[in-house]
Amino acid sequence: MVKQKTDSSYDGSQIQVLEGLEPVRKRPGMYIGSTGSEGLHHLIKEIADNSVDEAIAGYGTRIDVRMLADGGITVTDDGRGIPVDKHPKTGLSTLETVLTVLHAGGKFGGGGYKVSSGLHGVGSSVVNALSSRFIAEVAKDGELYSIEFERGATKVPFKKVGKTDRKNGTSITFYPDETIFKETTEFDYQWTVDYLRHQAYLTKGAYVSVIDERTGEREAFYFEGGIQSYVKHLNIGKDVTADDVFYVEKQVEDSMVEIAVQYNETFVEMVKPFANNVLTPDGGTHLVGFRSALTRVINDYARKSGLLKEKEDNLTGDDIREGLTAVILVKLPDPQFEGQTKNKLGNPEVRRYVEQVMNEYFSYYLDENPNVAKKIVGKALLAARARKAARAARDNVIRKGALDGMSLPGKLADCSSKDPSESELYIVEGESAGGSAKSGRDSRTQAILPLRGKVLNVERARLDRMLGNAEIVNLIKALGVGISDQFDISGLRYHRIVIMTDADVDGSHISTLLLTFLFRYMKEVVDGGYVYLAKPPLYLLRAGTKKFYAYSDEEKEMIMDQLIADRKEKGTQVDGAADRNKQAGLTALQRYKGLGEMDAEQLWDTTMNPENRVLIQVKVEDAEKADAIFTKLMGDQVDLRKGFIQSRAKFVKLEELDV
């Protein structure tokens, strides 16, 4: 029985009330997700989104971001400017109110914005709270006003500065607080460029620029075509079914629906759904409406044009979306996102809006472009036939036990543990390395799957052909998650999947082939953080009875420098004219050409022992970029790949292999 405490001093004095911006500084993760690099860059997004909202609303045409040499960020727009009049409720200027009061802004009714990318309206005040210095300047009808803060507290009060050449607009400069962002306060130029490029695509007619004063780099974007240009960008490097892009922009009740569609000859679907310029990676009602209408319209066209016979089944959504690239952008006054992360749109009426627009205008497009329509339907029919062939192939291999979880591949040396959280699968290049790995492993937690040669390049093959490849089938079978419509991440047998290949060109190619397969057909395994690349050593250095492993040329030089220093410290005479090997007292220096050169003990010590090994976790920070790089490296466009290789040739070092 729980003993009841008799102390009754629990009263209002024990309830902590955080005022103003204190809650933000106390728990910043609640407002920006983290205080690491991702949260740091979220600050730029919060400020820039306000400028984007002005452009969406039709009041601004330009957004300029300057990455300052002293570590700050300045975001300037030519919108209406944050109001500077006295706020009726706070008694402060509206500018100060917006920057110091949570949930104060033009996004909570009152007609400030009909459409806004901000859902919670806490952006500017949160950035202010998390900045060591924050300066706001507002131009209103040729007059300039300013206010300055330090960690959310007013430092230089609101004042009218005087005349300015700018008629209207807002300029915000902020410096992230190093006491909050302890990991880093350095902004990444490429992240900023990528974010602003997306905003330019989604806000057609807006000029967006970024200047990095630290390096002198600069870029600017202006896309008159908006999301049409975005679709063309997504299809770079891919053979498109038709040069033109289907595009529609239509007002439905109080919302705007904008859709762009273009097919390509790959087997991959790439659809980007946005609501008020916010990417919703988990989709939502706008994506559901789009897919439903697309499937209906194409099946209707295929029937009435005779491309789909009366006795044939309708094309499935998967058939129709093979090779589809599309951007869906809906703008609505009251977006209902699911969760703080805004990953999914929940407004039920939006499904109807998108279906209505797609049903009407995509039907017109197919009727008016019969050649394009026939190519789209023809591609879907091929996909349907391949799907049926894949099902037959899958059923065939299942009957033989090849994809049955009860029957693991014969080449797999499984671990004894059945707990996925502690189990590891090493995918090893070659039978020789596989033998060493099997002998040297910890058999309780480490499983070994050796590969014979290079696996199939799935970028150029459908599922039916993949299931005819023994190495791919063995991998599917070992992982336990199934494939295609039978994929189930809960069946994953290992929570570390380690690709272990030689540190040479062939090894890199095999790694890329495996990553292509995992990214295209088991993306949840990659997204879950289960995939790793092993980093075997390049060198073995022996100095008497001591041995050292170096994982790079730089590390080899550091080891040799240390050996030379140790010899000098012991009083050993070091001949400066002698070669480096003799200076360091090396008795052997071996450059590994492959994993097969290591015996079981060496492979365990260097690459498999959790105490010593180096593993690189594979992460997809930008799925769009990952798609582009896989298309470039593994697709059919030879010239694109050749250009990529030539542009990076200067970074390749020629190494002397025999020492």
Essential attributes:
single chain, 659 residues, alpha+beta, Heat Shock Protein 90, Ribosomal Protein S5, domain 2, Rossmann fold, eight-stranded mixed beta sheet, five-stranded mixed beta sheet, disordered N terminus
What does this structure look like?
The chain is α+β, with helices and mostly antiparallel strands. It folds into three domains: 22-222, 2-Layer Sandwich (Heat Shock Protein 90); 227-390, Ribosomal Protein S5, domain 2, CATH 3.30.230.10; 401-536 and 617-621, Rossmann fold, CATH 3.40.50. 37% of the residues lie in helices and 20% in strands. The strands form four sheets. An eight-stranded mixed β-sheet has the order 5-4-3-6-2-1-7-8. Strands 9-10-13-11-12 form a five-stranded mixed β-sheet, sandwiched between helices. The longest helix is centred in the middle third of the chain and has 30 residues, at 370-399. It is flat. The relative contact order is 0.07.
Q: What is the helix content?
A: 25-40%
Tell me the CATH superfamily of the largest domain: Histidine kinase-like ATPase, C-terminal domain
Provide the number of structural domains.
3
What structural class do you assign from the helix and strand content?
A: alpha+beta
Strand line-up of the largest beta sheet:
5-4-3-6-2-1-7-8
Calculate the mean pLDDT score and round it.
85
Residue ranges: pLDDT <50 for 5 or more in a row?
1-19, 400-406, 653-659
Q: Would you give the CATH topology of the largest domain?
A: Heat Shock Protein 90
Blueprint (SSEs and pairs):
Elements: H1 22-26, H2 29-32, H3 37-56, E1 62-67, E2 73-77, H4 94-100, H5 123-129, E3 131-140, E4 143-150, E5 153-163, E6 168-176, H6 189-202, E7 207-212, E8 218-222, H7 227-234, E9 246-252, E10 255-263, E11 270-275, E12 278-279, H8 285-304, H9 317-321, E13 324-331, H10 348-368, H11 370-399, E14 424-429, H12 431-440, E15 446-451, H13 463-466, H14 470-479, E16 496-500, H15 505-521, H16 523-527, E17 531-534, E18 539-543, E19 546-550, H17 553-569, H18 580-584, E20 588-591, H19 600-608, E21 615-617, H20 623-634, H21 638-648
Parallel strand pairs: 1-7, 11-13, 14-15, 14-16, 16-17
Antiparallel strand pairs: 1-2, 2-6, 3-4, 3-6, 4-5, 7-8, 9-10, 10-13, 11-12, 17-21, 18-19, 18-20
Helix pairs in contact: 3-5, 3-6, 8-10, 8-11, 12-19
